[in-house]
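Protein modeling request. Please complete all fields; requests missing the sequence field cannot be processed.
Requester role: graduate student
Desired output: 3D structure, token encoding
Chains: 1
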Amino acid sequence: MDVLMMPDYSDGNPYQRRLRDALEARGVSVSMTKGECFALLFGGFRLLPILGALREHGRPDVLHLHWIYPFTIGKHRPLTLAKGIQFLLELAVVRLLGVQIVWTVHNLEEHERRAPRLDRWYRHLLVRLSGRLIVHCESARTAVVDAYDLSPALREKIQIVPHGHYIDCYTDETTPAAARAELDIAPETTVFLYFGRIREYKNVPALVSAFKQLDRSDAELLVVGSPRNDEVAAQITARCDPHDNVRTEFRFVPEDEIQVYMNAADVVTLPFSELLTSGSTMLAMSFGNPVVVPAIGCVDTLVTGDCGFTFDPAVDGSLRDVLAQAMDADLEAVGAANYARAAEFDWGPIGAETASVYREAVAGEE
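Delivered output (366 residues):
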């Protein structure tokens, strides 16, 4: 079976690489592409990215779509309308060519909500053009059904395949002591880390405010990641006194440096106000870190029992209270439980389950 995955975001995230390798171990041939076969036109409009990818890589049995906003969302409404219509027409041609479409729903909507009504319309139509949908947990399945108002027949398209772990995906050779020395952090300090891209829905300014309410001189918050824009960075900086225990590093962190921050941290804190699934949570758990996460989406079933700390983003003070709870917990034990929990999500079975989804999609058209 031949599969084409789009868009290819494996440069900054090993998720697709690990999935590809697990699939190929089961006899599935996987190609990945960003869809850049033709030149950019009109300031952000890429001509026929999907059909161009098929022309370049050959007609696959399955087109596996992941994040769709590069194909549907533009800087302004006319561009979004043009991109989205082209996207849907391309997919209609793909189906006429006998290619099945599988869509992994990583998020219910484009996070920046630049064109929410059009985005919702495109997603509703994509459900109908797809042979199968993949989500990472049962709560995500329920959320997709509710968000897209799916009929019983359309609900049958949804298959649950978990998100795999990131154990051994990144270099992990340093020690906590060496990592803290590199970052000039005292050994006795309790370090809360936010790590990843900084976007509005990730609620990082609220994390800074909640952390400062702890008023603990023996704790430090480290905010590391590339802000989406200057406004987001300014919101965070405005909450930070230059002499207090909040430190920011607004930059993209290369893969070989991730180990420094993960090993220096006592707790990885991800204060998202919304999510469906979270690769950042799985990354932290794969390094054996305790996590503070919202009790929503797939992380609510991933972070269970002794694996971490959850808060309710709809309740004022919930994040602050959970940060305080983490300060008094046995973090070494929580981190060990997290690592064991992450290890349960091995890519071998995930590859087998995904290959089964492909076969069902193809068989459904025969």
